Amino acid sequence: MKRGSDFHDLELAPQDAPRVANRPLFGQDLSDEEVQKRFIQRLTDDFEFYCMTAVTIVNNNPHHPTARMGEIIPFRWNDPQRRLASLVMQCVAQGKPWLFVIPKARQWGCTRFISSLMDWAMKMHGPKNVQVLAQDQDSTLTLYEMYVESHERMHDGNDDWCASLMRSSRKTGYELGNNSKLRVQTAGTAATAKKVGRSKTNDFLHLSEEAFWEAAKRTLIAILQTVALGPWKGIFRESSPNGAGGSFYRCYLDAKRGRNDYQPFFVAWHDIDWYWVEPTMEQEAAWEGWRKHDSEEARQVGGFEQDQNDVIDRFDLTCGQWLWWGRTLRSKCDGDLDMMRQEYPDDDVTCFIQSGSPVFKPSDITDCVKTVVAGRYEVWVNETGDVVYDHNPRGFFRIWYEPTDGAKYIMTADVCSGHSSKDRSVAGVWRVTERGLEQCASIAGHPEPDELAEMMFMLGRLYNNPIAAPEVNTYGLAVLEALKRMGYSRFYRRKYYDELKRDMVKELLGWYTSARTRAQLIAAGKRYLRNGMVVIHDEELQDELSTFVKNPRTGKEEAGEGALDDYVMMFLIACKVDEDTRSGMISDMSKKDLRPAEKRSIHRAFGIRFAGSGGETVAEHLRSMGWTS
């Protein structure tokens, strides 16, 4: 894509084109007609040139080198806009649809950029049909006026090449002389959502503030079907975050994990280059005293807010940036950290936390994450009764590191009820290292308890028969019993304290979560993360740890509103089991191997036939039961 560096200093409007014949940009000896022709071609080919010459904006950058706040200036891209433009032009070059999901910070110009892009597509590459959906009537009017204002400023004096406005109304948008059409509407209510956009055909959708729509799911069912995806087609879903739940959050999360075709695009507040204030000499000195010498007095003297989430160190912030952050927190968010996190997010995980403070320090989580792409595997029992595995893109088993002879492992699970549950069952295998634990494999989904037991059995057989610690609250007890019937013999044993006898009376199998033991789990997880005693490879686990919060109303440490904590509980159990094993609080279980007769009994009990004799694999069986990975 052309950057337009040769015209950054030009103050050029479209009607000025014939008067620039002597400028090096178009050549010294060209006629006015040739200059106009080249000018229009440049507008058509180069979106940045189009923005700089055809679009104006209100300056909201207090550090702009020449313009005052509120002054109308040419639209020159900032860094986030340039990054997004680069991704869009990659789609153009590759003939792909423009699919983006964008959780946005305030005032970096996301909506202006998208509206200008749609305007360019309609005028210079029309006819194109664009539909815009906004969250409420006020937003609808604002977006409509943004599009019309852009058109009117460009059209004046350029009837010979700029498509004229044929029809305009606040309800339907407008139609251009080249048959391009714009419709701006309010996203539907629960009663009207399915009618929004139905029976229309669009080239582009601009879905604004989707996270705040009243009936997002129903509206999307209708509107997304109006675009036949292909080259020069696209959908832009942009919104301020609004909790870890809903269609927008799921779309962004799936985009991050490669589960849909959207490109995730995130801009944090510290990515915006004018979000800073000029510190005084006294504040600079106080900053050094606070950051280098951990002086609380210096922090107070400088007027700096506390850094509860290690944002300064994580993103290498300057004194001026942190002063801006504190001023914005106090003046624009009324000191509400949850509002600040939503409107001016630090990162693309914690921005979706609607309420509550994170339980685990973000820097501790980040330090323990080592990104490794997991392979998808199919695991089954062959005709000789041995557990084997192979790559399969549709496999239910995610494996980061294959089993190693002689290595020790721990296997834990958080268990839900099955297909009808909103929560997931998650099981994982962790390698015991000299310092702590490293993530090796996991499964997640909605299997019935007996199906989960089968998969855990095979993982256990694959990873050297590790100590197994399924959570045995409610449905987890069924998993434990199924594993015992299959002949699995190595379990975590917890001591049971008899209140009446005031003595440890017996050992019970599996992990039981109560109010007391839940606190132990969380303490163990904090310790392992803080001391770097665990290596995490799973982005889903990282996200869940980041959205695990202390509920401000109840004080309970749990998943944030709309978020999940299945991976978190599986992880915490692993930390506690490893801690107890190292301290000698639990004994290693029997290491007996299964006899061939016991292996065969697994298949009789659960109806899974040998894959090597024409039977179905475990994954095929689960898919037949309606379970998807």
Question: Could you characterize what this model shows?
Answer:
By secondary structure, the chain is of the alpha/beta class. Helix content is 36%, strand content 18%. An 8-stranded mixed beta sheet has the order 5-6-7-4-8-9-3-10, with helices on both faces. Strands 12, 13, 14, 15, 16, 17, 18 and 21 form an 8-stranded mixed beta sheet that branches. Strands 11-22-23 form a 3-stranded antiparallel beta sheet. A hairpin with a 6-residue loop joins strand 22 and strand 23 (557-559). Helix 1 packs across helix 2 and helix 8 runs antiparallel to helix 9 (296-302). It is globular, with a radius of gyration of 30 Å. It starts with 31 loop residues before the first helix and ends in a 5-residue tail after the last helix. Mean pLDDT is 82; it is low at 1-24, 587-616 and 625-629.
